[in-house]
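Protein in question kept underneath.
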Amino acid sequence: MKKCFLLGLLFAASIVNANGLSETCASLQLQVEKLGESKAREMGLGQVIDMCAKEDTSAHKEKMQSGTLYCTSGDLCATYDFTHSSDRKIYQKSCSQVASCPTDYKDKCTVYNDPVKNGTGTVDWTIYSYNAKLPDNIKKQHCQ
């Protein structure tokens, strides 16, 4: 959990200029809620938490509660669109959620109508890579 949290924070910090401080702070605040504020402060994020507390993030956080789910990990960002909104919660538990994915990706992979494991419906998802092209064998096997 800590590793995903830190990767999400690093990715979020890298897109501050692209998406604006309030959007990045909204993402950070959701991750801090998952981890716990005291643990995040122990990790040395107190100044960032305090800075973000001054930002109006309500519109971004509201947008992040439904619709497309955006998640980051390292130099990847993924979008998930569900046929059943209840399935969103399954993915959200392990997601380092952000308000959006940057548009300056190097490569992407999209899958449509993927059955949601332990869920009700299907999900259309896209993974964006920002530092390298996705391996051809992965793309040919999984992407449409």
Notes: DSSP finds eight helices and five strands in the chain. Residues 21-35 form the longest helix (15 residues). The chain has a mean pLDDT of 83.
